[in-house]
Amino acid sequence: MFIPMLDNRSDLEKPFTDPGMWQCSICAHENDTSNLSCELCGVLRDLSLYFNNISETEAGAKRRNKYSGVSVLARSLFAPSSTKSKAIIFSDGSQDNRNATGNKQATMDALHKTYMPSKKRHINIVPFKFDTPSPDDMVTTGLKSSRNFRKAVQIKDSVDATGKKMMDSGILQTEKDTSMDPCTSAEVDKLGGTSSSVPSSNQQVTPILDHELQHLSLESKPKSSKPKIKKPASISEYKPEPWMLQSEDQEIRRQLNLAIVGHVDSGKSTLCGRLLHALGLISKKQMHKYEKEAKEKGKGSFAYAWAMDDSTDERERGITMTVAVKYFDTEKYHVVLLDSPGHKDFVPNMISGATQADAAILVVDASVGSFEAGMGVNGIGQTKEHSQLIRSFGVENLIVAVNKMDMVEHSKDRFNFVKLQLGIFLRSCGFKDSSITWVPLSAMANENLVTAASDSRLLSWYNGNCLLKSIDSLPPPHRDVSRPLRLPICDIIASITLGQVAVCGKVEAGGIRTGSKVLVMPSGDLATVKTIERDSSSCNLARAGDNIAVGLQGLDPGHLVSGGVICHPDFPVHVASRLELKILVLEITTPILVGLQFELHIHHARVSASLVKILSLLDQKTGKASKKMPRLLTARQAAVVDVKLDKEVCVEEFSALKALGRAFLRSGGNTVAVGIVTRILDEAKV
Ligand code: GTP
Ligand code: MG
């Protein structure tokens, strides 16, 4: 197998007849010489750009790292577009423009009041069960996934930031399934607990409500008349409406979806809780309650994490299982904080939340041994896996929060060691040096979070931005309003009492307005947008980039599935049952064989799939086919493959809409390959 030398990047650029152009080695698209990366697929013209800034001391490590597992195609999949970074001046200590979420409570629309009294909005992925096999296990052991969508009612006691206790009674939160049964493997309960010892949220479900919910089956086919879809119009006929094109400066604060990712126990939830507390978004009374309860459970150090981890399971085990969502404001942004689980078993949940991210904070634990664990001394650590994943989601801008600096005496040497080691890996994933901000901090000690560092040991060598300023300095996310509406459904909330349903997710393209008609895919139902809630406040419209909850009317809630897509009525998303993917195999020990069953993730969709054919192996130097129909793939190989899905999935080709054309292959509890959709081979009739 040929593995390219990283310092021979000029080979990527093939000679081309027109001297004013260069040809992409992956997709053969002809690009203007002013483009640093291919405008079609994002492949870098010259990857040596990534390595120009590496100092001599790093050079040895760079050479050692040349087989680091993410090669030319990885960079092509993760290649950044040219986003310019704007620094901003941040007025230290000013609280005026930091909105307290509590203030917004009063303006929430009825839908939100009814459905989500808790200020915490969890993206409820299927709850973790320690006594059932993980989806990945089921795939690898050849078990067929259940096609029955699980239904659950959650009645949660919740406490808002002002300390007011609220009961979500009468609220039905349908837990979507994915085509899989809930996680997870019997592996590691890090506290040694078992699911039987701790009642899961499902076990608390009121049977009567559960019964009532039966009619909300998410699996059933639409009973209402079909088809509602007109003949799809050509995308070239689409013209964005004027309200979608509202100029950027008319927006007071832009929404920034910020994923918090990193290895288990690196301090992600503590960091989020501390940040919210420092910004005045968690009251003293509430914090006192967290501290008291955490102490009683023998988990005093998790008090701040409890602001994010609010389920019994999460608190008992001291780990995050689902993605928690909170909000805060900086001077420039309204930040949607997506706190991901770090535990290996919850990578599917992490994917579902972080796939919405515009930027990310990668939290690493600086303590000796812990950083190394995240980097995967024994197998792949989640510092690496999460970095690869978020880059492949299209995230270009990254803040690396080097946490727990108090554990290493705020040592400059340790910080530099982490920066050097991790920096090499991040570059190999396709992050640009200029798009990475490194911030040493201690979440627990509130050091360098919202104000400049105060510890003299840290001050002696660090005078950069604190975390909050670094967030505010992130470049604004790109919003694609030039294409028709695409809102992939992350979560579904239904109320049988009101007969209404709401869906949550990030608008990936176009815009949506109250009163307008939308097409719900894959069912093909038409629905009317009754309400839109953006950042816990009701509003009349939302555009690409916004993370919203949409109240829909006129359709059977049972026709909604997570992984479905809300579309413009005239421009439906594709619904595919067979796909051609261009993939890059990650560090795997067992080869990928034709016939392999795996779990495929595309935006919020998660389905069982099988590898029908490996169409061609790609030469990593040129991106051209080097071998037809190989029987297997090994680590770091790139290939074009044909995959058959057990269930139809809403998808776009990567060249049409990146967010809906990225795919992740998982097997045996690991991400085995990342890729892009190059062709839809079989399209389902909707
Ligand atoms: P998962 O969500 O399960 O992946 O964990 P996490 O990354 O959210 O970590 P969490 O916030 O739950 O914290 C894990 C442990 O690290 C807790 O005991 C925290 O008290 C501790 N911790 C977090 N930040 C710091 C820090 O800055 N210094 C020290 N000493 N401990 C910290
Ligand atoms: Mg956590």
TrEMBL record:
Supply the InterPro entries for this chain.
GTP-eEF1A_C, P-loop_NTPase, T_Tr_GTP-bd_dom, TRAFAC_GTPase_members, Transl_B-barrel_sf, Transl_elong_EF1A/Init_IF2_C, Znf_RanBP2
Which GO cellular component terms are attached? cytoplasm
> Per the record, which residues fall in region Disordered?
166-203, 217-241
Q: Its principal location?
A: cytoplasm
Residue stretches making up the RanBP2-type domain: 18-47
One annotated GO molecular function: GTPase activity
Q: Where does the record place the Tr-type G domain? A: 253-485
Q: According to its UniProt record, what is one Pfam family this protein matches? A: GTP_EFTU
UniProt superkingdom = Eukaryota
Keywords for the protein's UniProt record, in alphabetical order:
Cytoplasm, GTP-binding, Metal-binding, Nucleotide-binding, Zinc, Zinc-finger
Q: PANTHER family attached here?
A: TRANSLATION FACTOR
Write the protein's name. Answer: Tr-type G domain-containing protein
What organism is this sequence from?
Panicum hallii var. hallii
The major lineage groups are: Eukaryota, Viridiplantae, Streptophyta, Embryophyta, Tracheophyta
